[in-house]
Amino acid sequence: MASEQTLIVIKPDGIRRKLVGKIISRFEDKGLRMMDLRLLVFSPKEADEFYSVHKGKPFFEELVSFISSGPAIACILEGDHAINTVRLMTGATKSFEAAAGTIRGDYGLGLTENVIHASDSPESFIKESRVIFSRS
What domains, with CATH codes, occur in the chain? Predict the structure, then answer.
């Protein structure tokens, strides 16, 4: 079995809509373990660094603005094949394309307001978690 860690961020819309418990319980029900949990508000600089892979794309500024618009919850999850498992549970980025039964399919309201971010690779997990968990 390939135990690994990944990062999820419940975005400001997920917190405003009181979906945090429902979302986290899905991962716990799947057998993933919470290794770290943090409530934060991204500064514009942190949001820019967090989404730097999308810099130059037409939606970049909207992403940065939205993720820094209110509190978010970051959680490091651990388990067998955690990255792929979490990505499958999260669903397609465009919530209107996400399958029913996925987090975005059940709770997302669009492209930006899609409730959750999930790291897509070990490299992304390292980069993204450093932005969040290396804060003072």
Answer: 3-133 (3.30.70.141)
